[in-house]
Fold this sequence. Notes:
Largest sheet: 5 strands, mixed
Strand content: 15-25%
Structural class: alpha/beta
Number of strands: 13
Distance between the termini: 18 Å
Helix content: 25-40%
Bound molecules: coenzyme A
Number of helices: 11
CATH architecture of the largest domain: 3-Layer(aba) Sandwich
Order of helices and strands: EEHHEHEHEHEHEEEHEHEHHHEE
Amino acid sequence: MLRAKIIATGSYAPAKKLTNLDLEKMVDTSDEWITERTGIKERRIAGEKQTTSDLAYEASKIALKQSGLKAKDIDLIIVATVTGDMPMPSTACLLQNRLEAKKAAAFDINAACSGFLYGLSVAESFIKAGTHKKILLVGAETLSKFTDWKDRTTCVLFGDGAGAVILEATEGENCILSTHIHSDGSLWELLNLPGGGSKNPPTKESINKGLHFLKMKGNETFKAAVRTLESLVTDTLKANNIKPSQLSALIPHQANLRIIQATANRLGLSMDKVVVNLDRYGNTSAASIPIALDEAVRTGRIRKDDYILLEAFGGGLTWASALIKW
Ligand code: COA
């Protein structure tokens, strides 16, 4: 039976750092508040002309190099993002052009912070179906361009970056064991970016009302995240007959350290098994898991035969997980 395997990873974050101390000068906040409530210390910010596809391109080049494949070998490109370069064409098509991956079909996925794991689920299904054999999956965001830098309740949370993986078909047992995707559209108002679509097309009024900035009900989102992630991670392990003690690493979406700790507690996992890098990047939405995965692979935290659990939660609402035998 064909299964999907991640054969290479890559990530990229813009050079510019914005620290909590920098934010203290911009809004009424403090390093202490941000660190205590979120765990975030700094985040990366894209340059004025730097787009989401630019970040995706850098991360993809690294993953391609590691895989030993050429861009022309890739037959499908999926980009998970809510901050694409433009509403149309897809950021995946722009990336295909930059990479000169002429054989590849290309499309975007919008599942907010769960986007990378939704993409992993789609890529896995295409590989299992046998229709595509070498897939480039990227999570890439420039949330800084959609952040209201006067709103202290959101601007301290987000950052920019991109992470990429290359997937290939395998018949071996080192592969993606399962993926799980969920949504609850009734809670869409907890986290949204209301402007720029057909509901609120761009007008002077929509700009003045700040509709092109991300909106969030932080406290309710926090509670919904903890609630859904608890059952998501236990159900994912149960579906594969794996005990938490067999896990070598949990790679969570990097939104808030307290949410991550609650999930780890639920599984009885000590924090040294949990990959955390949100102190350096903040919440990079769809990019957060592939950046953390890439860092874990490169620093030797993940080794062959390890069981790795990935989980995410985001706007939609959406939530998703994957269990991998590396
Ligand atoms: N600096 C200082 N004070 C701030 C602040 C900031 N950046 N942002 C909010 N506050 C204030 C609030 O105004 C509030 O003040 P009040 O009590 O006088 O009204 C107080 O801090 C508490 O606000 P609250 O929203 O209840 O804090 P919280 O403990 O829920 O933490 C979040 C806020 C945003 C950190 C937290 O809710 C969170 O992380 N939610 C999930 C967000 C998330 O992960 N979203 C993405 C999902 S993918």
